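Entry 14. Structure prediction run on the chain below.
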Amino acid sequence: MFSFFVFLKIVSPENTKSSSDDEEQQMELDEEMENEICRVWDMSMDEDVALFLQEFNAPDIFMGVLAKSKCPRLREICVGILGNMACFQEICVSISSDKNLGQVLLHCLYDSDPPTLLETSRLLLTCLSQAEVASVWVERIREHPAIYDSICFIMSSSTNVDLLVKVGEVVDKLFDLDEKLMLEWVRNGATQPLDQPQEESEEQPVFRLVPCILEAAKQVRSENPEWLDVYMHILQLLTTVDDGIQAIVHCPDTRKDIWNLLFDLVCHEFCQSDDPPIILQEQKTVLASAFSVLSAIYASQTEQEYLKIEKDLPLIDSLIRVLQNMEQCQKKPENSTESNTEETKKTDLTQDDFHLKILKDILCEFLSNIFQALTKETVAQGVKEGQLSKQKCSSAFQNLLPFYSPVVEDFIKILHEVDKALADDLEKSFPSLKVQT
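Output returned:
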C-alpha cells in the first residue's frame, strides 16, 4: 500500500492549507502525484483495500481535503474513492452515520466542476441504494433546500451527458424512495411574479422542476436516446400525484414540448417497424414510462391545440405495433425443451414478463382512451391510410377485449358507417361483438 501512504502525505493537512502564495499551485496536481493517488482510487474498488482505507480513517482525511482543497482533480478523486468504498455495506453505513462527512459531501453538489459533481452523484446514488441508510440521506437532502436549486441548474444547463444521466438517477431514486420529497420539489418550483395581483395568483404557476427535467432529457437524447430511461421514469413518477400532473400540463409551452418529445420518441425512435420484435425487451421500461406520460397528458388535455386528429393515428399505429411485437416476444419457441424446473420457469416469468405486463396495461388503457375520442372522419382516414387495417384492428381487439368491450363496440359502430365490409369481417373474427351491436 505504498501508494496509499504517498497519498496520505499528499493530502495531509500541511499540504492542503491554503495561502495566497501557493493557491494557484493547489489548483492542479503534478502528473506523478496524480498517478499515485489515481492508483489508490483504482485499488479502492477492492473490498480489502476499502477496509484498509477505513481502518486508517481515510474518510476523515478526505473530509478535510474536501473542506479545504481548491484543486478540482484532488476533490474529484477523494469523492471517487469514497464512492468506491461506499459500495461495501459496512463502510457505507459508517460513512452515512458520520453527520459531518455527510454535510461536506452534500456541499460538493454545489461544486462547479463536472467530474466532482459526477463522482458526488455516484456516491449519493450508491448510498440511496442501500436500504439501511437511504432514509438518512433523504432526510439530509430534505434539510438542504439549496440542493434542489443545484440539481435543477445541472439538469437545465449541463452538456455533460454522463453527469446528466447520473444526476437523473439520483433524482429518480429520491422520488421513488420518498413521495413527500418529490411533492416538495414540485411545489418548490412554483413561482409567482412579484407584480402579479393576489386575485390572479392561482393562475398557472410556473413549475421549474419539469422544464429542467425536459432540458436534461433533450440533451441526453441528442447523444444517445437509449439513456433516456431514467428521465422518462422521473416524468412517469410525477404523473402518479396530482401536483406532478399539474406541473406537466399546467404550463402550455412545457406541456407541448414534453408531448412533442415523447410523441417523436414512440412514433419515430423506439420499436420501429424495421426493428426486430426482440428490441422490445431492451426498450420495454422506457416505452412504459413514455406511453404512461403521454396517456396522462392525453387524458388531461383532450382539447388542446397540439392534440389534433393527425396525432391520434400515428399514436394508434405505434401502440398497435408495440402490442404486436409483444405478442411475438411472448411466443414460446417451437423447439423449446421441457428440462427447466418449475422454479426456474416461475423465476423466468417474474423477470421477463413483469415489465411487459405493466407495458401492456399502459398501452391498452391509452389505446382505449384514443379509441373513445375517434371521430368518423378520423376512422375513415385511418382505414384509408392503413393505421386501421383489418390486421391492426384485430391486434388491437385481441388486447382490448374483454376489459374494454364497450370501447371496442363503439368503435365498431363507427366503422360500420365508414367501411361496412371491414366491420363485418372483424365481427366474424370476434363474434362477441356482433351480439352487442
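Residues 108 and 120 are 7 Å apart (CA to CA).
Filed with the rest of this week's runs.
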